[in-house]
Amino acid sequence: MVKVKSPVTAAIRVLRQAGVAFGEHPYQYEEKGGTAVSARELGVDEHSVIKTLVMEDDTRAPLVVLMHGDLQVSTKELARAIGVKSVAPCTPDTANRHSGYMVGGTSPFGTRKQMPVYIEESILELPLIYINGGSRGFLVSLPPAELQRVLKPIPVKVGI
């Protein structure tokens, strides 16, 4: 087993600056493996692995959606919840430009652009979540209350 060194990313700097106690979980990244691979590699439930999705509304304004790894986002419900005509995932290049991270390594912490953050409300009920730390193959674990304190995400119910 090769010990992978944890990177120091913009996300890690934000977490440290905010005084968040978090666990570091490097793992072997697999292209297009998603949360199923990270959950398997870390031996945790995919429901507690949170994906960070960069989307745009109908005016092309970017936003971040945090969703359980084993669920999808209903873009129709999200648009209704946030009062816009439509919401769609960004292309990988556009997501990279908005976030400053490469797709597969996108963290909601330390994004290049300030974007509103929406969170599936049931994530806030979990005791511990695993979320990208700003690099492919690197998750951090923390209580959702800490994520809420730092990011002040807007709870929505859009998971399917």
Structural features, described:
With 160 residues, this protein is α/β, with parallel strands linked by helices. The chain has a single domain (10-156), classed as YbaK protein, CATH 3.90.960. The chain has five helices and eight strands. Strands 1, 2, 3, 4, 5, 6, 7 and 8 form an eight-stranded mixed β-sheet that branches. Strand 6 and strand 7 form a beta hairpin. It starts with 9 loop residues before the first helix and ends with a strand. The relative contact order is 0.25. The model has no long low-confidence stretch (mean pLDDT 95). InterPro entries: Prolyl-tRNA_editing_YbaK/EbsC, YbaK/aa-tRNA-synt-asso_dom_sf, YbaK/aa-tRNA-synth-assoc-dom.
Layout of strands and helices, then pairs:
Elements: H1 10-17, E1 23-26, H2 34-42, E2 49-57, E3 62-68, H3 75-82, E4 87-89, H4 92-99, E5 117-120, E6 129-135, E7 138-142, H5 144-151, E8 154-156
Parallel strand pairs: 2-6, 3-5, 5-8
Antiparallel strand pairs: 1-7, 2-3, 2-4, 6-7
The helix-strand sequence is HEHEEHEHEEEHE
Give the biggest sheet. Answer: 8 strands, mixed
CATH architecture: Alpha-Beta Complex
Count of domains: 1
State the helicity in percent bands.
Answer: 25-40%
Strand content: 25-35%
Overall mean pLDDT: 95
CATH superfamily: YbaK/aminoacyl-tRNA synthetase-associated domain
Instruction: Quickly give the structural class.
Output: alpha/beta
Low-confidence stretches: none
Shape by Cα distribution:
globular
Report how far the terminal alpha carbons are from each other: 36 Å
Instruction: Kindly provide the name of the CATH class.
Output: Alpha Beta
CATH fold-level topology: YbaK protein
Output the radius of gyration: 15 Å
Annotation, overall tally of beta strands: 8
Number of helices: 5
